[in-house]
Amino acid sequence: KRCDGGRPACGQCVRADRSEDCEYVDGQGLTQTQLLEQEVLRLEGCIAELESSTSQPIALHDPYTPFHQIRNAAQAAQPTNDPDCIVSTPMLCGRIFLNVPRFLNKISAMPTADDPQYPAVLRNAIFLLGSKFSRDPQIRMHQSVFLTRSLQHLPSAISIATPATILFVLQAEILLSYYFLDHNRRLEGAYHSNAAVSITLACRLNMTRSMRAAPSARNTDALGGTEFRLLPPLDDVEEGERINAFWSAFVLDKCWAVSLGTTSAFADDESTGTQIDVPWPLGMADYENHRLHPDVRSMRTVRSFLEDATGGSRGQSLLAMHAKAALLVEHATRVASRWDPNNPAFQARFQSLDNCIERFKQTVPPLARVDPARTDVIRSLLAVHALCHCATIQLHTPGAHALALNSRTLTAANVVVGMLRGVDLNRIDFVGSIMAILLTTVSEVVLRAIHVVRDTINPVRMVLHLRCQTKAHCSPRSTTLWQ
């Protein structure tokens, strides 16, 4: 058929779905084909000119040079040949619940069906924290690389997690939460902390060595309906990792619930299957030496402690003391937020918790007994002592008021200040970010005391002021609250 001359494309080309190829050579401008032919001629002329030129050769460059530089620098910073230098970092080691020697042996081993390799997210999370605490500035500058890798690998690690690898993901979540909270990125830190709690409950770690029967399936929806039925532990060390994993997530949650002003995710509620029956943690060396007796069982671990803070010798490891102190400061903050001194039920809760805090303080070893060379132990005990005394400050501060200044809060603050004076802080390179929050609480009490001293000429008047401030927040019928 003949062309019907339709514009911009004839009917024949439109029906054949070739409208873009329809061109008219009628002198009304160059067609697309003619434009392309002209461009080809121009480029051929340029090539001929370059081939006949006697000038210096044109130096070409690799457009991917910046990418290669970043990748090579990150690989150089990653201590894959010597992971000991990262894992043995004191601050990092204190945040790892896994058995470090086993981790070092497995991190470089080939994975098998029975012994899966650590996920890439855990490896990068450890390198992230290790680079943060490294003394080498060349390594510290690559934190962003390890952080990006960790966050990239995390979704896939969760989606393909199995009962054999889920604890590795839990460890990565805890490390990422600490990293964000250390950098005051609270929203992201809280997100990963809640994820760690969800994994802990989904794995039923709160029921490890429980005296109770296994919970029903309807009470195990801790991770969006997902439950990880862990295989029986191979030995005491593996079971110890599970116990310490729970308490590591517990410490993280309790400390930052106070810092963020949120409710703790560990409800310890039997009706929802979140009761805490797991025994208090031991040190990893205790598990290696088989000090976790096969017959040890536990029930209502946290509730029993709140009733008797000195119950038994078990639970005096550094992690156990840290967990108890974190529990006390969070519980004290919650009780004080419901301040009602005229309510007999509140008075009973207040007095019981106050006694519990004071009993527990007596069980914590003093810093003076610790070898000055053991800065890792000093760092941990300093946090435990600070948490205990801040629990006293929080408990004796009504929820609707600023930090109260009375004999109890001032004494607690002075004890913390005295401990700091007795420690060689020059030997402690790093402290956890929770210490900044605790010391802020202590400093606010001290500053208020200084202001009172400046405004009070007569020392007797200052004593009376403190007594009156304390008594004003308590029931006139309950003198035990302010003595």
**Strand-residue proportion:** under 5%
Rg, rounded, reads 33 Å
Into which percent range does the helicity of residues fall?
Answer: 55-70%
Which structural category do the helix and sheet elements fall into? mainly alpha
Main sheet characteristics: none
SSE topology string = HHHHHHHHHHHHHHHHHHHH
Distance between the termini: 110 Å
Alpha plus pi helix count: 20
- Oligomer designation: single chain
Principal-axes geometry comes out as elongated
Unreliable runs: 77-81, 217-224, 474-483
Please, what is the average pLDDT? 81
Compute the number of strand runs: 0
List the helices and strands and how they pair.
Blueprint: H1 11-15, H2 32-52, H3 65-77, H4 84-87, H5 90-93, H6 100-106, H7 120-133, H8 137-140, H9 143-159, H10 166-182, H11 186-202, H12 236-260, H13 284-288, H14 301-307, H15 318-336, H16 344-363, H17 375-395, H18 407-421, H19 433-455, H20 459-472
Helix pairs in contact: 7-9, 7-10, 9-10, 10-11, 10-12, 11-12, 12-15, 15-16, 15-17, 16-17, 17-18, 17-19, 18-19
